[in-house]
Amino acid sequence: MDPSKVDAVVLVGGKGTRLRPLTVSAAKPMLPTAGLPFLTHLLSRIAEAGIEHVILGTSFKAATFENEFGDGSKLGLQIEYVVEDHPMGTGGGIANVIPKLRNDIVMVFNGDVLSGMDLRQMLASHHESQADLTLHLVRVSDPRAFGCVPTDADGRVEAFLEKTEDPPSDQINAGTYIFNRDVLDQIPRGREVSVEREVFPALLADGVKVCGYVDSSYWRDMGTPEDFVRGSADLVRGLAPSPALGGRRGESLVHDGASVSPGAVLVGGTVVGRGAEIGPGVRLDGAVIFDGAHIEAGSVVERSIIGAGARIGPRALLRDAIIGDGANIGARCELLRGARVWPGVVIPDCGVRYSSDI
Ligand code: GTP
């Protein structure tokens, strides 16, 4: 199947509530990930596969996407934008872009999935099975946390099952779909619709041929802070593929204009954004440091995200924390286990200072 005859639709209109407070100031697909807006990694995979026409279904912070990607020519793409006044859900977002489609095959992507799945192979599988709809499925070690999607011996989807303690399959919906154009007309219009919960089960019940494409490549939904931190680190270390990063992979990635003092240790896939300053004796392990943040002497930051322009005072300890843009964390503060600090919040110096005089 010729990828240039396929439209890509990327859903990027969600509010990203699970990633607050980072998504107070930016849409989730625009958050810097390994130093680039997350969506850049997905768009570069789409371009690499040979797909040319992309429609972004936007709503929340819609203008920021067009400001960053424009007409798409820098990535070798033709990008168009469709804005929902109110988020219409994943199904509504797909139905909304129909007037912009140019081709009979439509590949739809959740805009927050980091994956190494081979898009051309999925297109070939859709063609060979003569499906009306193909879903990318991944196998997970603990499927109890997800709805599961069992398939028969021919790869045909048998059911869409809600979360259960004893799922009959370890296959889950991985958030990339190929639709034959005419199937899209069956999505209800003019109201909020979930493609996962409503459209797919209804299509199956109507006898539409729905197939699964199962593969074992890298896959991560970046919707939670834990997954966002892991995904960013995996990109930096080269465990997750991204044509946008080329060969720049290693234990850490320090962007132009950042300064890292001698004696600072950067490991675990840490990324340091443009203009950030890392003080002496700082240890960053799996940390995501946005542009212009300052981490002062002797602080330790593990598996945490530090928002743009935030300041972490000396000898602080942050583990599994999110610090909003422009927040100011005092010396020796400890923020652990999922602590979240809202943008601009000031936390004064804290803790006990031990010195040789005591
Ligand atoms: P949470 O609020 O944290 O659940 O995040 P989310 O709003 O992004 O929802 P979810 O992770 O389920 O969304 C999966 C993908 O669909 C993301 O890329 C979203 O941007 C996108 N999406 C979710 N809701 C809408 C919508 O109403 N319209 C459009 N166009 N896209 C949506």
TrEMBL record:
The organism of origin for this protein? Mycolicibacterium aromaticivorans JS19b1 = JCM 16368
Residues forming the Mannose-1-phosphate guanyltransferase C-terminal domain are 250-343
Q: Which family does it belong to?
A: Belongs to the transferase hexapeptide repeat family.
Q: What InterPro entries does its record include?
A: GMPPB_C (IPR056729), Mannose-1P_guanyltransferase (IPR050486), NTP_transferase_dom (IPR005835), Nucleotide-diphossugar_trans (IPR029044)
The cross-references to Gene3D superfamilies, in alphabetical order and at most eight, read: Hexapeptide repeat proteins, Spore Coat Polysaccharide Biosynthesis Protein SpsA, Chain A
Q: Which Pfam families match?
A: GMPPB_C, NTP_transferase
All copies of the Nucleotidyl transferase domain together span 8-235
Q: What name does UniProt use for this protein?
A: GDP-mannose pyrophosphorylase
